[in-house]
Write a structure and sequence with these properties.
This protein has 94 residues and is mainly alpha-helical. It is 78% helix and 0% strand.
Amino acid sequence: MSDDLSAEAQARIAELRQRIDEIDCRIVQLLNERARLALEIRHLKPQVHWGLYDPKREEEIFANLARCNAGPLYAENLREIYEAILHVMKELRD
């Protein structure tokens, strides 16, 4: 690889990494927004006599993820990611 191509590739990698950092910040913002909504739902559930854990709702979430997934992630990848997210959401304290 020539020095020009190497420098070009390095510049492109730096650019892509900056975009990834920006996306990661957006993901963090969205996860915090999701957490706030989940906490609000948690506070409302006793008023309608619903249990805190709802396996049917989790399956709805996984189905929605599969439906809106345009790739390149596989549905199984998203399910693994969201299982971790849902676990953390359940552990949230008010």
